[in-house]
User: Which sequence fits this backbone?
């Protein structure tokens, strides 16, 4: 499997953990003190790093640092929007489309040769 594909798949899993660590506590632990939510998020983030670190190491063998970062940001948005809508009950907004178009521009400029 090509390094870019491995990287993308690992980053998708990593971002699922990261997004839940950052925002899931707002729904699931809203009745608990902030420090309980922080400890919980740190625990979830441990698993995020088990995918993120190998993803970046593998990705850096085939991608530049800038390309790796833009890939991460595109995947972050791609994971965040469904999470916000499906898990957090946020309405779908046209702003997500505009953000995605901006990210497409970033991808173009960073990945062009």
Assistant:
């Amino acid at each position: 499997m090509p390094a870019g594909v491995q990287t993308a798949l690992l980053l998708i899993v990593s971002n699922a953990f990261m997004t839940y660590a950052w925002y899931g506590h707002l729904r699931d632990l809203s009745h608990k003190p902030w420090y309980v939510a922080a400890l919980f998020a740190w625990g979830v983030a441990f698993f995020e790093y088990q995918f993120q670190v190998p993803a970046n190491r593998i990705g850096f063998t085939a991608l530049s640092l800038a390309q790796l970062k833009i890939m991460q940001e595109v995947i972050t948005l791609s994971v965040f929007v469904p999470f916000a809508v499906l898990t957090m009950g946020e309405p779908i907004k046209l702003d997500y489309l505009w953000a995605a178009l901006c990210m497409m521009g970033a991808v173009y400029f960073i990945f062009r040769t």
